[in-house]
TrEMBL record, chain A:
Keywords, ordered alphabetically: Glycoprotein, Membrane, Notch signaling pathway, Signal, Transmembrane, Transmembrane helix
Gene Ontology biological-process annotations: Notch signaling pathway; protein processing
Domain of life of the organism encoding this protein: Eukaryota
Stated name of the protein: Nicastrin
Localisation: Membrane
Family per similarity comment: Belongs to the nicastrin family.
Gene Ontology CC entries for this record: plasma membrane
Membrane topology, from the record: Single-pass type I membrane protein
UniProt domain Nicastrin small lobe: residue ranges: 50-203
Species name: Oryza glumipatula
Keyword match Membrane: yes
Signal peptide: 1-26
Automatic annotation (TrEMBL), chain B:
UniProt protein name: Gamma-secretase subunit APH1-like
Domain of life: Eukaryota
InterPro entries registered for this protein in UniProt: Aph-1
Keywords for the protein's UniProt record, in alphabetical order: Membrane, Notch signaling pathway, Transmembrane, Transmembrane helix
Subcellular location as annotated: Membrane
Coiled coil, from the record: none
Bilayer-crossing regions: 6-25, 30-52, 64-85, 115-137, 157-179, 191-209, 215-236
Family label: Belongs to the APH-1 family.
GO biological process, one term: Notch signaling pathway
Coiled coil found in the keyword field: no
Source organism of the structure: Oryza glumipatula
Length: 668, 249
């Protein structure tokens, strides 16, 4: 903290005279007014984002140390070696190389106490993806797993490291660079700036090495959250007899990254989520939507980055006919249209999307056709759709895999901004931020989806071209949602989010989190994260039929089929008629019984059951990182020795002086 | 492990004070009382000073002169307090002397008076050290140390411990010089004390310069040594004179 540097010295001066007066740093306003201030200046708490280790059912090893203290060393060159146990300060653009090297170099591995990753220097980075080349390949419903959907993927996220890894914020990067420079310069050897890592990566109890044992010991919770689905128009319970076939439109709401709290996932998958919300908004303005031949059901799945938790749990609930999916059934699902990554579709001046159809059934061909007619209807907006290359082994990693795993003949399609390889060069990394997506690309996808849904839902009816052309997306809504869901400013405190919920944190994070609710009573979960809550309220609001009376409410509504939108907002919410529900999203291999989570044995009827990693996150206190200067132990002992010598010498002098004086006095 | 360092710094700052207390003050109850009174006096003076200066603080500019004014006024005030303390002591001494006359016991002798002034000075010094150094030392017992940008050679705690030691010596022995000077009405001693106090205080401003602490702290120790030497000579002279007088009478 260079700015406050003079303050302590002034305090030293004040020690001479008047420390009660707050001494001030010259230049800036940083003051050192009390001993706690001094302690704060000594121990710099560094703002950083830890890498949290998760457990799966096959286990991760827990080294079990609680605090690590090591000198901060800059690791600039890829051939650098370490001389002692060190906290390595690493530029982000060397992270991949470093972690790959560490995995193959046990000599280096042993000397790493922790890794601090710098936040800056990312401008010249062209690609960075810590995920695998084929993310979540265990869930692929096809056998060719050698395809590289994510060619930039290094897979470093899935290796295990016995040292903590922290991503620094821009400000703390500066601080730590200064300290590392000081360590390089100081040749005296008795002073070093060190980093102290608190409880690192995991705090699993000893002996709980995998999800099953830690869940039994209740020292962890399963990853999960709440998915949300809605129908347009609302499904009234009286009409259950003659239900329409369903077109499912899905998107994911969660991402993953090396650093838990820095998982924005702007292109993958939040661009798809924004497109879905915008398409719902566009379709909600149609008046004759209930006259269409098919029922539109929109679902936003949570936990998709961690084993397609949301979509698989949704399908399981459908099979079990749970309350959360009351009104729809898996037999009615006619088509599945997934909106994948759609934020980077603009390549040659116009948006170009690829339709990845599952199989070659006539219905999925019809879906591609519908997308193409929608693209034609958009005319001058020039939004193009192409069928994905037939050389692809199948659909790219997506929730559709869950549907195909359940029933391989499900007609489905994933709309993506890439053909055979991700156009997102920062897949599942901290760099997949708002700058990585293009709002007009997302708006084009939303328009395309909205119009093709109208075409698909019309089925064999002649398409009303006038109505079709009135379907227009609100581009400013896309931009607003990008601001809300992908940026810290305004973040979740933006107007549209605040009109529905009172967010707990303005900076959005799309890490799935842990499932904190009890699985029972999912109709009104006691806990849903901000994003799920916002999606629920937004969808409920947009899909509500106009007939809903607008009586104010704070929780539940009395009338059947009515829900309370914006219940948390000051002044209460309003009751609307809408079929919008939360569905729990957690591993299908988990069961909550007697207040404990149990891992179920592999279900032979579910092909994905064995592939399910059953991710859990341990309970941990705040994971902190602080840096400070330490002295060599010999220096400490030297100080003590000097203190003792001074005291002893002065005592000796007092005795000698006293006897001398008494001798003078006695002489008389 | 830095409990050792924290203890070391505390011993540097307060070790000599402890030696003086154990070797001299603790033997006579009235000296302990004097020490406590003096400590209280010094603390009250500090509270009054901080109350006055509160209005102007914190000093936002980086210039050194506001600190010089601060030092000047504070030294002046504390020297005033010393005079008040002297008056109070004098009154007590008269009372004690008359009381001693009444019960036909000997009056306070010269060494007693000197011991009282020593205890008074030690009270000032200890209050200073406890207030300005010991309280700051608590973080030194932790893992970390602290270096100030402008003083990269010495830990902050060592600087404050040495400064505290210097002022302990100056405060303790300048009280003996001052009381003797008032008693003898000797102008040179009366002037010596405030001048030394002021010089030592202004000297701490050297710490504001980059690397200044390496020069400032030894210089302060020199000032402390000079005070001690001056005091010793004075005490020697007075005792010899008295001895002469008694011898001749």
């Amino acid at each position: 903290m260079g700015g406050g540097s003079t303050a302590p010295l002034l305090a030293a001066f004040a020690c001479v005279f008047l420390a009660v007066f707050p001494p001030v740093a010259s230049g800036d306003a940083a003051t050192l007014e009390s001993v706690p201030d001094l302690v704060k200046a000594m121990y710099i708490n560094v703002e950083s984002f830890p890498c949290v280790r998760l457990l799966n059912h096959s286990g991760q090893v827990d080294p079990g140390h609680d605090k690590v203290i090591a000198p901060i060393v800059r690791f600039g060159n890829r051939n650098d070696q370490l001389v002692q146990l060190s906290a390595v300060l690493l530029p982000l653009n060397q992270m991949t190389d470093f972690f790959l090297r560490v995995s193959n170099d046990p000599e280096l591995y042993r000397k790493i106490a922790g890794v601090l990753v710098e936040a800056n220097g990312v401008d010249n980075m062209l690609e960075f993806s810590p995920d695998r080349k084929f993310p979540q390949q265990a869930f692929a419903p096809y056998s060719n797993l050698s395809h590289h959907w994510n060619p930039t993927g290094s897979g470093i996220m899935w290796n295990k490291y016995d040292f903590p890894v922290f991503l620094l914020s821009e400000e703390s990067t500066q601080t730590l660079q200064n300290l590392a420079d000081k360590n390089e310069k100081s040749a005296n050897g008795y002073l070093a700036n060190v980093a102290e890592f608190d409880l690192v990566m995991q705090t699993t109890k000893a002996g709980t090495h995998d999800s099953e044992s830690c869940l039994r010991e209740q020292s962890c919770l399963p990853l999960g959250g709440q998915s949300v689905w809605t129908s347009l128009p609302p499904i009234s319970n009286s009409s259950t007899k003659h239900q329409k076939p369903i077109i499912m439109v899905t998107a994911s709401q969660d991402s993953a990254s090396f650093f838990r709290d820095r998982s924005l996932g702007a292109d993958s998958p939040i661009s798809g989520l924004i497109a879905l919300l915008t398409a719902v908004d566009a379709l909600s303005h149609l008046h004759d939507i209930s006259n269409l031949k098919k029922q539109l059901v929109f679902a936003v799945f949570n936990g998709e980055a961690w084993g397609y938790l949301g979509s698989r749990k949704f399908l399981q609930e459908l099979d079990q006919g749970a309350d959360s999916v009351n009104g729809i059934s898996s037999l009615l699902i006619d088509q599945v249209l997934e909106i994948g990554s759609v934020g980077k579709a603009i390549s040659q001046g116009y948006p170009l999307f690829y339709a990845h159809a599952a199989g070659n059934s006539s219905i999925s061909m019809k879906m591609v056709d519908a997308l193409q007619s929608a693209s034609e209807s958009l005319g001058s907006d020039n939004v193009k759709v192409k069928p994905a290359a037939s050389s692809n082994p199948g659909v790219p990693p997506s929730s559709l895999m869950s549907f195909l795993g359940k029933n391989s003949s499900t007609p489905g399609l994933v709309l993506e901004d890439f053909d055979s390889q991700f156009s997102n060069r920062f897949y599942h990394s901290t760099l997949d931020g708002p700058a990585n997506v293009n709002s007009s690309s997302i708006a084009a996808a939303a328009a395309l989806i909205a119009r093709s849904l109208y075409i698909l839902a019309s089925a064999d009816l002649p398409i009303d071209l006038i109505t079709l052309n009135t379907i227009k997306v609100n581009v400013s809504l896309v931009e607003e949602l990008i601001g809300c869901l992908l940026k810290c400013d305004p973040g979740l405190s933006c107007g549209i989010v605040k009109s529905f919920i009172s967010p707990s944190n303005s900076c959005p994070s799309h890490y799935v989190g842990v499932f904190q609710d009890l699985p029972a009573g999912t109709q009104f979960p006691s806990y849903a994260d901000d994003i799920s809550q916002f999606i629920w309220n937004f969808l409920a609001d947009r899909t509500s039929s106009l007939a809903g009376n607008s009586s104010s409410c704070t929780g539940q509504c009395h009338d059947e089929g009515e829900i309370c939108v914006g219940a948390e907002v000051e002044g209460g919410g309003r009751c609307v008629v809408s079929t919008t529900r939360y569905v729990p999203a957690y591993s299908t291999r988990l069961k909550f019984e007697d207040n404990v989570w149990h891992v179920l044995p592999v279900n032979s009827s579910d092909p994905f059951s064995a592939a399910d990693p059953v991710w859990t996150e341990s309970f941990w206190n705040t994971i902190g990182l602080r840096v400070y200067a330490v002295q060599a132990t010999s220096y400490d002992w030297l100080v003590l020795l000097i203190g003792i010598i001074i005291t002893a010498a002065s005592y000796f002098a007092v005795i000698v002086g006293r006897s001398y004086i008494s001798k003078i006095i006695k002489r008389d | 492990m830095t409990v050792a360092a924290g203890l070391g710094y505390a011993l540097v700052a307060l070790g000599p004070a402890f030696s003086l207390f154990a070797g001299v003050v603790a033997r006579k109850p009235f000296l302990v009382l004097t020490l406590l009174t003096s400590t209280l006096f010094w603390l009250i003076s500090l509270i009054i000073l901080s109350g006055i200066w509160r209005v102007f603080l914190p000093i936002r500019s980086g210039a050194w002169w506001p600190y010089a004014i601060l030092i000047l006024t504070s030294v002046a005030f504390q020297e005033g307090i010393r005079l008040v303390f002297w008056r109070l002591y004098k009154k007590t001494e008269e009372m004690l002397d008359s009381f001693a006359d009444r019960i036909s016991k000997p009056r306070l002798c010269l060494t007693d008076k000197m011991l009282i002034s020593l205890a008074g000075g030690l009270g000032h010094g200890v209050a200073h050290a406890v207030f300005f150094c010991l309280s700051l030392l608590t973080p030194a017992f932790g893992r970390a140390t602290f270096y100030v940008e402008k003083c990269s050679r010495m830990p902050f705690f060592l600087v404050s411990a040495i400064i505290s030691l210097g002022f302990l010596v100056i405060h303790t022995f300048s009280m003996i010089i001052a009381f003797n000077g008032y008693d003898e009405r000797k102008r040179s001693d009366q002037v010596f004390v405030p001048v030394v106090h002021l010089i030592a205080s202004v000297m701490t401003l050297i710490n504001l310069a980059p690397g200044g602490c390496v020069i400032g702290t030894p210089l302060l120790c020199v000032v402390g040594a000079v005070t001690l030497q001056y005091c010793w000579q004075m005490v020697w002279r007075r005792l010899s004179e008295q001895q002469h007088r008694q011898f001749s009478s």
